[in-house]
Amino acid sequence: MTMKTKYPIGILGATGMVGQRYIQLLENHPWFEIVWLAASDRSSGKTYGEAAKWRLDTPLPDRIAHMTVSEADPRGAPKIIFASVDAAIAREMEPKFAEAGCAVLSNSSAFRMTPNVPLVIPEINADHLHLIEEQPWRKQSGGYMVTNPNCSTIGLVMALKPIEERFGLEQIFVTTMQAVSGAGYPGVASMDILGNVVPFIGSEEEKMEAETLKLLGKLEGHAVTPLAARITAHCNRVAVEDGHTECVSIKTVKPATREEILAAWAEYKPLAGRDLPFAPEQPVQFAPQNDRPQPRLDRNRGRGMAVTVGRLRPCGLLDWKFVALSHNTVRGAAGATILNAELLASQGKLDR
Amino acid sequence: MTMKTKYPIGILGATGMVGQRYIQLLENHPWFEIVWLAASDRSSGKTYGEAAKWRLDTPLPDRIAHMTVSEADPRGAPKIIFASVDAAIAREMEPKFAEAGCAVLSNSSAFRMTPNVPLVIPEINADHLHLIEEQPWRKQSGGYMVTNPNCSTIGLVMALKPIEERFGLEQIFVTTMQAVSGAGYPGVASMDILGNVVPFIGSEEEKMEAETLKLLGKLEGHAVTPLAARITAHCNRVAVEDGHTECVSIKTVKPATREEILAAWAEYKPLAGRDLPFAPEQPVQFAPQNDRPQPRLDRNRGRGMAVTVGRLRPCGLLDWKFVALSHNTVRGAAGATILNAELLASQGKLDR
Amino acid sequence: MTMKTKYPIGILGATGMVGQRYIQLLENHPWFEIVWLAASDRSSGKTYGEAAKWRLDTPLPDRIAHMTVSEADPRGAPKIIFASVDAAIAREMEPKFAEAGCAVLSNSSAFRMTPNVPLVIPEINADHLHLIEEQPWRKQSGGYMVTNPNCSTIGLVMALKPIEERFGLEQIFVTTMQAVSGAGYPGVASMDILGNVVPFIGSEEEKMEAETLKLLGKLEGHAVTPLAARITAHCNRVAVEDGHTECVSIKTVKPATREEILAAWAEYKPLAGRDLPFAPEQPVQFAPQNDRPQPRLDRNRGRGMAVTVGRLRPCGLLDWKFVALSHNTVRGAAGATILNAELLASQGKLDR
Amino acid sequence: MTMKTKYPIGILGATGMVGQRYIQLLENHPWFEIVWLAASDRSSGKTYGEAAKWRLDTPLPDRIAHMTVSEADPRGAPKIIFASVDAAIAREMEPKFAEAGCAVLSNSSAFRMTPNVPLVIPEINADHLHLIEEQPWRKQSGGYMVTNPNCSTIGLVMALKPIEERFGLEQIFVTTMQAVSGAGYPGVASMDILGNVVPFIGSEEEKMEAETLKLLGKLEGHAVTPLAARITAHCNRVAVEDGHTECVSIKTVKPATREEILAAWAEYKPLAGRDLPFAPEQPVQFAPQNDRPQPRLDRNRGRGMAVTVGRLRPCGLLDWKFVALSHNTVRGAAGATILNAELLASQGKLDR
């Protein structure tokens, strides 16, 4: 893919944690260029450098620091919007941008489960993108909405898909140990998490359970039929900065040996040859050590876009158990939106 | 129970983390008095104050600090031994003490699954203590061996027993998030756990699965028939000082409503009226808040001897899911040994 | 001191972290009884159990949970008020309560440096309490205001006073490593402190420097002449739940040997014989180990009311250096107010 | 500098934390190539992959994983040795390698204060390298020894040098908050540091004080005359993975304004134009925000080779106070050795 000029990108929710990751990850992106930043009314009119409390460990790019934060209004916004705002705000705003003709690529939970909105991970269910043609805005203004999953869902689904594809899945059990960055900033109070575990994250279990089945579901006609598996999630917050760790047990439809599952993971390369800049070469990586994956050591594999699995062993209750790990603000949020955008660009579905 | 003189107690493994907890918890104990401390050869001959790196947040009692650490040899030891040493050492030493006529109350894993050794939690299976009569030493010297479970097992079993008793249990799923103190001192390297999760603890899953079924099993004839349930455990280490948090899903034999399970927990008071000093008034305490139990806030309930449960809700896969929490070095180790000793004392099975 | 009925106490800022500590520490207090709780408008009218997010590891007392939170208005309030609210709010409210005849014992910074308001630590400068007679309200309504220092100041001053008294002090250098509980709840974001140090706490260095000199100053006529020493503070936030650690270097006026300083600390017992319930028997405790004091191990000495010092050694720049540690929400806040109240009660300056 | 073939490098202490950093940082180094790895007897003969517990968050390079660990013996070793072993071992081994003709670039403390051994930071005192000519081995075999400072010293000295050069320094006060990685692996026990501060690191204060004055000293004749300043250090361990934070107060010889100090830092570029691959473009970077530098956010500046300073403000005791931060295992250890080697290579003092 050669291109003369980059796609102009706008970011809705630019000052939040995921907004900051968009900025960090899009610096020097070969296809995309940030031209518009919007945040809450409190921020608009200020320079981004003034409005945002930059919390990442790479410097805030100078060009971005000097950009003026716009109002969250489609007028003046570019045709491609990366959005990461609270669900309540997303519910109100994202349709306005789609209506105005924008491709809204959203990390928010507001519309993920809406029947005509695709919930997509490029390696998992790229075909679900077809749902944008079911959206009213697509016909009217050309605008549409595509969502990426919750940060805890992505690691699970990427670990499950290669298995589901070959052996089917009947039952899924998952317990998460999630990083604090998943709650945004200021998010989790230090008094709540230092030397502690909080065994509750609002709506997280419900999201994980529903999104997983939609992502692993089949596009049939005008909607996705979710995977007919049973699933349960226990979600916990732990004292980790970045990286969600998940303990998973599964029951497959057809029996699978350990070697077959390892092979399914190793051979899973659905984007091979598509040359999407953010696609990890090896999306699911198996760590052979008996105490891995670990968030500090494995979250950055594939520049934060790979999911690491390990400890595959028989389960006393279902068939197999293992551990999955993914970087929650890269693979699980900002990187997910960017990869969706790259996929859409490669399909000619983004306008400059 | 009135008593003129206290029972003299010896501690094997006195300088370790659990050894220190024995010392802390036995200070001012109404029935027991430490008279003998043993540790590795490196320590013997030194005063305890020199030999141990005291890591607890209450002062090392002066009397103990000045006691001389003995060799780990039954000669010179009192008739009651609290033992917490590595399994390999326990395997060799504990029988020697039992043979010499001691009541060995062990926190070590070495003999927990041995058929004629009782694995006991007083509130759960006090009747299993009868197995000591099956031990060869009992007849010869009067000595015997009683074990308490692994720190991660206790919290689980105490939360399960009230349910099992009323409704039966068919399937048990548990994921643990365990405190670093469970690994002793120095134990877990700070480089391994700061900002991290280690999804592996050697042999822990196997212990939890086997011990749980033995504890919930029935004493039949000369041995315990383990509970005929299926169980699977995922064990993780997290950056918490004290307190193991466990996410549990269960399938009962008979259907149980939420209210029935809450009632089973609330009404579970098997030691009521026995007046054991370390027995918590309410062994299983339900926390009604949606984000509890949490290790920092709930581990000290019942002076560290109660188990806190919370978040009881339907499970998408089995019947119910909930969170259980217990203090791993009090309820899960030193306090467990002490309570076993109190129970034995109340039954007239300890000698002065 | 015998008393028929306890003093009725009101708490202003009852739902905050220090407010919660007042409640925890006053449970079963022999002299004081909480009868009135006030917090922000948002909370008033609710029960305390509904209004407060209880964050301590002992249970919220039932009686308190069911009390209704009042408006922060002197009408209906008892004659003794423990106050811990933001400085801006304190500046407006505390005088109203004093004017209405209340003894306002404040943990807020608003009036600490006001010339006619005593800033008091009972062990250090009980005589400064005389300043209440300089307050206009005292004459009009009998009301007055007494403050206790900032959490980081107390540990420093208690370690310094015994030295200052015997040898004088010319120069004081202090670097703090402060616990997150000092910032209240939610306070420090977990994203800011996990695996991190924040080398800045707003206004903390200024407060520490000024308060220290006032506390060590002399009451002369109608005001306190601050100690004529030079002082500098570096204040940092670290990933500790409770307990401020401080590295101190000092230059004395008269030379002092190591033994003399140790003796000054050991013999410092200014409240001896006064039988104040919260007064630690040994207010400054020396830890002989080379790696102490440490917050996790030493903060609870004297039920959180003692200051622990350690590592006394020559300083390459000034005369001596050492480490001091105190529990920031007990000795450094709620316990400080309570001890001030006990002192006032013992002097007959509190009304029922 | 063009070069046909890279310099072959051997690593002594290859399995330790700093050894691992050498391997990580030297991957793809334009000048150096690892050809030899040595560690303790326990490791020799194994492949590096088997012998080392790799603890970094980038993958262990395949080529290195398959290299066989050698005995720590000069026979068979290349001419350039990067060494990071315990002082006691270094004291015995490093001279053997120098005697055998190797350039020994050491991170160990054993010989740092030896008069004829240069203790060098390229940006600070490159001229001290001349001391190698004073070493007996240099004449005999061509071998020599060069050391880099302790991890806590480097950040301090790099922040001080630009000031010392322009205004002189009379007094230096420093309190450190040091990361656990500085203690190696397993190093600090998690029980010691979670929710805690340890206000003691063995010999650290002595090293910091002595090394700082030697680094800032003048090469005169056959030895270095240390800077004639007074210095005192308080060293603490905190719950941070990487990055040492230091609170510094200084008294200069000539008065300096805030602007003059900022200018001294900004303009300090002593290696400019030398094109050493690991030299940071801006060695001392000022962070203007009032709560910076922070280890998590600033340790990776200049790929971990820059020192970040901030919070420059007047000191109540000396003249100025500020905060300095550096990455302790990159700038403070492995990167320091590598930069020394690059400097020596650029001076023609390394042999292939």
Task: Provide tags for this entry.
homotetramer; alpha/beta; Rossmann fold; Dihydrodipicolinate Reductase, domain 2; 6-stranded mixed β-sheet; 5-stranded parallel β-sheet
Task: Report on this structure.
The structure is a homotetramer of 352-residue chains. In chain A, strand 1 (7-12), helix 1 (17-26) and strand 2 form a beta-alpha-beta unit. Chain A has helices at 17-26, 48-51, 62-65, 87-99, 122-125, 136-140, 151-167, 190-193, 204-215, 258-266, 295-298, 330-346; strands spanning 7-12, 32-38, 80-83, 103-106, 144-147, 169-178, 218-220, 223-225, 230-237, 244-252, 284-287, 307-314, 320-326. Chain A is 29% helix and 22% strand. Chain A has twelve helices and 13 strands. The mean pLDDT of chain A is 96. Chain A has two domains: 7-150 and 334-346, NAD(P)-binding Rossmann-like Domain (Rossmann fold); 152-327, Dihydrodipicolinate Reductase, domain 2, CATH 3.30.360.10. Chain A is an alpha/beta fold. In chain A, helix 1 packs across helix 12. Chains in contact: A-B, A-C, A-D, B-C, B-D, C-D. The A-B interface holds A 171-173, 175, 177, 192, 194-200, 209, 230-234, 236, 238-241, 245, 247, 249, 290-297, 310-311, 315-318, 321, 323 and B 171-173, 175, 177, 192, 194-200, 209, 230-234, 236, 238-241, 245, 247, 249, 290-297, 310-311, 315-318, 321, 323.
